[in-house]
Design a protein that fits this description.
single chain; alpha/beta; Rossmann fold; two-stranded antiparallel sheet; 9 helices; 10 strands; globular
């Protein structure tokens, strides 16, 4: 069974999939600071009961030359071809609540048709809401709780959880377009943007995945196991703190970020937690320079550094 646009195929029998479930989504691609989305989705698929109910067509949506699949060379023959996957799952949370999970790669091509296909799935299974997560690097300290910016049409979530409400242009994610079209249809939708310390953007940051799970729980009422992520997060932060203590330059960077963050959260008239003491936004070059400093310091203390994020 296929959708009219031909972008996905349904499993032969989806008659037992309940209607009216919440849809949760997270796609990896352009930005996944701290490995938040990849850790979030791998935690769900690794700890919960899931079943694929629709699979999207890689040949229509994936740029193989940009994101090459892997294959194993075993002495004299090839084995274990591992293509990328973009699929809709039926999942069950820790207390038996079912939901739909869309995860995998962000499409490289045909965003409008992909959006129409997702909306078709939302309609087919009468999803009661859509919640998605992604993460971006920001000049914020790891010593403070991870903040989120919430978009969509669920005013209660925006008012309760959104710590930063900018007026700005951003480079779009495919799920931004899905959210935009769902808003036009008055379908309840919320996007949680996790604000990850920019100097941790290229690592696997367990607290980022925990925040993603927490955000989805707040929006949907779903319950997820987080003990393992909490333990990994404590170990990760301990390693970062040791590096900060041993490097005055890094300590000054974190201290400055803490001051900006605390001033903003206390009601400082600064427009965002990113603005520096002169009232200016850091440039991309300045952010990159700080990140290079941090990565260099991590490299020098390689034995204590957190593991790099897997691609």
């Amino acid at each position: 069974m296929e959708d009219p646009a031909g972008l996905y195929a349904l499993n032969a029998d989806v008659s037992d999939v309940p209607l009216g479930l919440p849809l949760v989504a997270g796609l990896t691609g352009f930005a996944d600071a701290g490995g938040a989305v990849s850790l979030f989705t791998s935690n769900l698929t690794g700890t919960l009961q899931t079943r694929v109910i629709a699979t999207f067509d890689n040949d229509a949506l994936l740029d193989y030359r940009a994101r090459r699949p892997t294959i194993y060379f075993e002495q004299d023959h090839l084995t274990n071809y591992q293509p990328a996957s973009l699929a809709l799952h039926l999942a069950t949370d820790e207390i038996g609540q079912q939901f739909l999970l869309l995860n995998g790669y962000e499409p490289d091509f045909q965003w409008e048709r992909f959006t129409s296909a997702v909306i078709g799935l939302v309609d087919r299974f009468q999803a009661k809401s859509t919640t998605w997560v992604h993460a971006i690097p920001m000049p914020v300290p790891h010593t403070r709780p991870i903040g989120v910016t919430v978009s969509g049409n669920r005013a209660d979530l925006i008012e309760t959880f959104s710590v930063w409400k900018p007026h700005t242009q951003v480079l779009a994610n495919a799920l931004h377009l899905v959210e935009y079209r769902l808003q036009e249809l008055d379908h309840p939708v919320a996007g949680f943007v996790l604000l990850i310390p920019h100097y941790l953007a290229d690592t696997e940051f367990p607290d980022a995945a925990f925040k993603a799970l927490e955000s989805v729980s707040s929006a949907t009422g779903l319950i997820f196991a987080t003990d393992s992520l909490r333990d990994d997060g404590r170990e990760f932060i301990e390693k970062i703190d040791k590096q900060v203590e041993g490097n005055p330059e890094l300590a000054r960077l974190v201290g400055t970020l803490e001051e900006r963050h605390d001033a903003y959260m206390a009601g400082n008239p600064l427009r965002s937690p990113l603005i520096d003491e002169d009232g200016e936004l850091p440039t991309a070059d300045e952010i990159a320079a700080e990140l290079e400093i941090f990565l260099a310091l991590r490299h020098n203390g390689e034995d204590d550094q957190p593991p790099p994020r897997s691609e």
